[in-house]
UniProtKB/TrEMBL annotation:
This is DUF3307 domain-containing protein. The chain crosses the membrane at residues 39-72, 93-115, 127-147, 168-191, 211-233. The keyword Membrane applies. Pfam families: DUF3307. It comes from the Bacteria. Keywords: Membrane, Transmembrane, Transmembrane helix. InterPro entries: Phage_phiKZ_Orf197.
């Protein structure tokens, strides 16, 4: 079951956070059915590729993947605009539960897939999923959290600079946790604090200091959660031989 779940969750993560443009997100918010159809086609194609085989269970699972994803995404469009972060978290939680339920209903799908003999594949899919959730999805979550404080944001620097910094710091944290060196994250916090000090200390701008602190802690917290969730998933899969031993 866990291999099937990993394959399906990787397809979901790629469809939602790697292959979905801002224009598609906006179109789904307007309940534009052609946009929904395009998004679902990408998801189903990725799910089919991950579990490629010819069986009735395979077709049934793909139908459930598409149907559940569509219903959850449609439900999200009715969420209040001022509850965007809660809608995002609830939406992704519902997708996670639906994916787990489908994997539980068809636990042997990956074992019968064309790629079943590749023992390294589930672990690789878990790494890909964890990296995207930590780095890419984390950016959306932190952005939604900080949207209410936009008027207190620090002065603009490089275009998209803050977004890129957040992605890089979450990527570094993800790698440090997987490498068994979480203690080094403290040095990352110290370095960012020093580099940000001048930007947030001018003119006694305390609200801007708080803005940076909240954003940084949220970003670091998301990255730690994503990294340790990835490690937890990988403990149930065949080892890749590239991560330090849990012992």
């Amino acid at each position: 079951m866990i291999e099937t779940f990993t394959a399906l969750i990787c397809a979901h993560v790629l469809a939602d956070f790697a292959l979905q443009s801002n224009a598609m997100v906006a179109g789904k918010a307007r309940r534009d059915m052609p946009v929904f159809a395009t998004h679902l086609a990408i998801l189903i194609a990725l799910s089919a590729l991950a579990l490629l085989q010819f069986s009735a269970a395979f077709l049934a699972a793909l139908i459930l993947v598409g149907l559940s994803h569509f219903l959850i995404d449609i439900a999200k469009t009715f969420a209040p605009k001022n509850r965007a972060l809660m809608a995002f978290i609830t939406d992704q939680g519902a997708h996670l539960i639906a994916t787990a339920a489908i994997a539980a209903a068809f636990p042997g799908l990956f074992a019968n897939a064309l790629w079943a003999g590749q023992s390294w594949l589930p672990g690789t899919l878990a790494l890909i999923s964890g990296g995207i959730v930590t780095i890419r999805a984390g950016g959306f979550a932190v952005g939604l959290l900080m949207a209410r404080f936009d008027d207190k944001a620090p002065p603009e620097g490089l275009p998209e600079g803050g977004r890129l910094i957040g992605q890089l710091e979450r990527g570094v944290i993800f790698l440090l946790v997987l490498a068994g060196q979480p203690g080094a994250i403290g040095f990352l916090i110290a370095a960012k604090s020093i580099l940000r000090f001048e930007a947030v200390s001018k003119d006694g701008a305390n609200p801007k200091s708080e803005y940076v602190i909240i954003g940084t802690l949220a970003s670091f917290g998301w990255a730690l959660g994503g990294a340790y969730a990835t490690l937890a998933l990988m403990t149930h899969l065949a080892p890749l031989g590239i991560l330090p031993s849990a012992n």
